[in-house]
Amino acid sequence: MLKIPDHQVAGHTARHGKLGPLIDDSGRFYKPLQDDERGSKEVAFYTSFSSNKRIPDHIRRFFPMFYGTQLLEASDGSGLRPHLVLQDLVSDRHNPSIIDIKIGSRTWYPQASEDYVEKCLQKDKITTSLLLGFRISGLQIYGNNESGFWKPEKKLVLAFTPEDVRLVLRKFVSSNSPTDSNSVPDCSFAPSVYGGSAGILAQLLDLKAWFEDQTIYQFNSCSVLMLYEKESAMKGRSSGAEVKLIDFAHVVEGRGVIDHNFLGGLCSFIKFVSEILTSPDEHSTEACSPDPEKKCIAIENGTTE
Amino acid sequence: MLKIPDHQVAGHTARHGKLGPLIDDSGRFYKPLQDDERGSKEVAFYTSFSSNKRIPDHIRRFFPMFYGTQLLEASDGSGLRPHLVLQDLVSDRHNPSIIDIKIGSRTWYPQASEDYVEKCLQKDKITTSLLLGFRISGLQIYGNNESGFWKPEKKLVLAFTPEDVRLVLRKFVSSNSPTDSNSVPDCSFAPSVYGGSAGILAQLLDLKAWFEDQTIYQFNSCSVLMLYEKESAMKGRSSGAEVKLIDFAHVVEGRGVIDHNFLGGLCSFIKFVSEILTSPDEHSTEACSPDPEKKCIAIENGTTE
């Protein structure tokens, strides 16, 4: 009855007998609790959030539904283990294209140990987190019936440069093949996926307005998940473009301060998305402009000195 | 003809025969160039900024006027030294109350050396930068004719907790004495200084809108300066409330990415200011509420572990 999710793009996976999340046919997602404090912290967040009356409904929709915890046979065969029971965000989706974007130029939190800070800081430096305020953690982009999904492996995704990120965000909303490096992404679905009154950008701006005000939580190391269905968009139907927030193992109390780290990264990501909407036919290589005030954004290992 | 500025609240000072900025009677401020790259980087920024046609006028007003560089006898008697020639922001001010707020939870920049990063990171942790996204670097608050200014020394300012910051931002716009710890700041000038269509908050929001869009510069370790004249406000005249940006020795090219670090910190600061406008009569101690969802924001050494 429980099975391994088809459309997970980041995080631990239950494949190859490892410990990872499972799904069922009723639209639920079972995330195993880690043995360390991460698991209990994520349960604490969902419990607090689901009962918090200060969360407006138009913000609550960005979060997976929470159904409590449940003891289940773990996917690695290690026996019974508590699992978070969440909404499976893609249970009613057909071939969804998905990008997982970890938000924040800093993925560690002030209260963390020196070792943890150092580990995260190094990762923030070698990925785009520090420079862009976010990094792509995983993705799958649907091509067509024959090619299926482009789902680059984790190592490749974490090595993305700022220019790669720009390109991937264009590929995400293009009709041409995501793996064809010779064709320029046409961004033909940008207006219907990123744009419009219910599109990704509008949803991100809703989220931004909340983050400018809310001082309840600090969402360290959380991800924004963007998803939509290309086949549906190709047929002129609704693309089902949706933004969700996931991964709350490092959420801490806001203590009266807004989450400036998340907000800054979110604004940077919003700028990337809105630039695709305003210049959908710009070749990504044009970012390397001879205009001295508009320098090439490709940064060669500039983060790792 | 050149003299030591009366109203400098942060940074190097020319007092006691040290190297620091000087002013003249014509409203110019002479900032000595440091021997290391900071001086030349700040000149480079002002030169680039002053000729950049993509800076709108309503943003340019936040920056000091730049008049080039000039060789001058240095204030420490070490001989001729190049100085930045800038507008003296307080030359036409009478007893200005001033706060210098260094913006950003991170005051270092990705390209910096490991040593420099470590030094800044430690300072960001022990001050409020990491937690609040900004820290107060210096201030002077005018009391009255007899008491003059409250100008706490640097050591005290850098030891401010989040709760101290909240209190100082209230004292800044209060009619009662800034040094009287028994009286609760009345925030009587909040509507005229922070509020209104030309007040501090309106100016900060203007600046924020630009930072959401501009990808020309990253303003690492810059300060927002807030100033106004209490005596003028007391007489019901314009408070002359003004926001300025200063200190550009660590500005780097934006390379197509918004300054998410500055923007996040600016939004956090905006939230602090707007909370004073919406609850001007709230005692600062009320932030320690028994409501479990609204915990005390005083954080005891939580930043230095």
From TrEMBL, chains A, B:
Its EC number is 2.7.1.140, 2.7.1.151. The keyword Transcription does not apply. Coiled coil: none annotated. The keyword Iron does not apply. It comes from the Eukaryota. Transmembrane segments: none annotated. Pfam families: IPK (PF03770). Keywords: ATP-binding, Kinase, Nucleotide-binding, Transferase. It catalyses: 1D-myo-inositol 1,4,5-trisphosphate + 2 ATP = 1D-myo-inositol 1,3,4,5,6-pentakisphosphate + 2 ADP + 2 H(+); 1D-myo-inositol 1,3,4,6-tetrakisphosphate + ATP = 1D-myo-inositol 1,3,4,5,6-pentakisphosphate + ADP + H(+). Inositol phosphate kinase with a broad substrate specificity. PANTHER family: INOSITOL POLYPHOSPHATE KINASE, INOSITOL POLYPHOSPHATE MULTIKINASE. Belongs to the inositol phosphokinase (IPK) family. This is Inositol polyphosphate multikinase.
